[in-house]
Amino acid sequence: MMSTNKVKLEALLKLINSAARVAIEEYEKAGGDVPSIDSTEPHPLDNANDQVALKSTIRTLEGACAQLCTTLAPPSHTAINLVQVYDHACVRVALQENITDILVNHPKGIHVNELSKIVKIDARKLTRLMRLLATRGCYNEVETDSYANNRLSLILHSENPVRHMIGLHVEATAKGAAVLYETLKDSKTASSEDPDHAPVMYANNKEGITGTFFDWMRQESYHRSMRGLNGIMGSLAVLTHFPFEKYSTVVDVGGGIGAFSLPLAKTHKHIQITIHDLPEALVQARSVWARDCPDAIQENRIEFAELNFFTQIPIKGKDIYYLRNIIHDWPDHESALILRNLRQALGPHSRVLIHDYVLRELSRKRAEAEAASLGTVLAPEPMLPNFGVGNIRMYQQDLTMWILHNAKERTLQNFLELSTAAGLKLEKVWDLAEACVLEFSAA
């Protein structure tokens, strides 16, 4: 008879095998073949709006693989892997020097000596950076010390919106993370939820830079990074999973240049859209819509309305009020204020959609109770019920919100406390495999 521990390992192996097979089937259905680590162009599924089926199986695959490795590897091996990570520093170099853009012109590869002359970085040091990234599967070493792009490195191209989100992490987030401990020990910042006291601003203040991280929101690069978040989180799956065909009006609260609204306008042309945001964001939005979706402007399907969601009530009586990655930017007091103002705009049949990460419970007993009452999805045993590393991005994003905004991602219970106090009633949880859409009505 196998020991209990061995039974768990065998179960993890079965989950890995079955999840990998489902992923292969998803790739084959979308493009006829599966990608390889050396693929030199995107797979059709890479840019699909609806990746829910793929993401659902990948979170099981990643979570089970990591749990198996952590169980079987020596603890010291795993512990050092947590901290001896310099990928972000190497990616920063690649971004700053536009290495992916350069390699587009060298599809068969370029020797690091030639690349060194273009980017003006010592060839010996550049080799070490490229070697580490290629070992991670980002770039392909086609011959000794000669590198070409692959499917993963193409994400770093200057025209890919995901690049801007990656740039945000290797610059601002890395800077704030370096002083996270110091903010916990400084009496001024230790218990503060003031955005001015976010770790990134703590680091900036040491350099004489004042203000808040939201100053970035005046730059189009920040809004482009929000469009990149669509691809990372699979956010646009909401366009096919939520029944927008039943509704005629949508208000995009804090919608920026239209990371959600632009695809919505192209997918559901019957919907009248209102983008609410601050004046400087709407100036950029009008320019982007004129370029990327002029039909919506000509057909009067889009309107831009200034709104400070702390002091003003959104346009009243619309069908859907959509907030994507808004609440997580703010601590509880400010988030509650946003929702209370929003509640005053709702008609009897209005719905509020909050599209964010929802942190999962690590206790299986609590996770099972939540799943039974609210329809959330939990991982099969013997995996951690929150899918472990398969859902790691939401926990990393929680730290990102702390570092940049002194804010946070929330559990479902956290959302219920905020929404109930604001007079909202949870109707349904739409699990899109990475993030969730929480659908509320007026209580």
From TrEMBL:
CDD domains: AdoMet_MTases. InterPro entries: COMT-like, COMT_C, SAM-dependent_MTases_sf, WH-like_DNA-bd_sf, WH_DNA-bd_sf. It comes from Boletus reticuloceps. The lineage of its organism: Eukaryota, Fungi, Dikarya, Basidiomycota, Agaricomycotina. One of its GO terms (molecular function) is O-methyltransferase activity. It comes from the Eukaryota. GO terms for biological process: methylation. This is O-methyltransferase-domain-containing protein. Keywords: Methyltransferase, S-adenosyl-L-methionine, Transferase. The keyword S-adenosyl-L-methionine applies. It holds the Pfam family Methyltransf_2. The keyword S-adenosyl-L-methionine applies. Residues 220-379 form the O-methyltransferase C-terminal domain.
